[in-house]
Amino acid sequence: MKLTTKLLAASAIVSASAAMATDLEVTHWWTSGGEAAAVAELAKAFDASGDHWIDGAIAGSGGVARPIMISRITGGDPMGATQFNHGQQALELVQAGLMQDLSEVADAGHWRDFINPINLLDACTVDGKVYCAPVNIHSPEWLWLNNHVYENLGLPVPQNWDEFVASAPQVRAAGIVPLALGDQPWQSSLAFGAMQVAIAGIDAWRAVNVDHNMDVAAGPEFAKVFQAAADARELAVGSNVGDWNLATNLVITGQAAGQIMGDWARGEFAVANQVAGVDYSCLPGLGNPDVWLSTGGDAFYFPKLNDADKTAAQMRLAALLVSPEVQVAFNLKKGSLPIRGDVDLSAADVCMQKGLSALAEGHMVPGGDMVWTPDTQTQVGDLMVEFWKSDMTAEDAQARWVAILQND
Question: Which domains can be identified in the chain, with CATH numbers?
Answer without folding.
Answer: 2-138+296-340 (3.40.190.10), 142-294+364-406 (3.40.190.10)
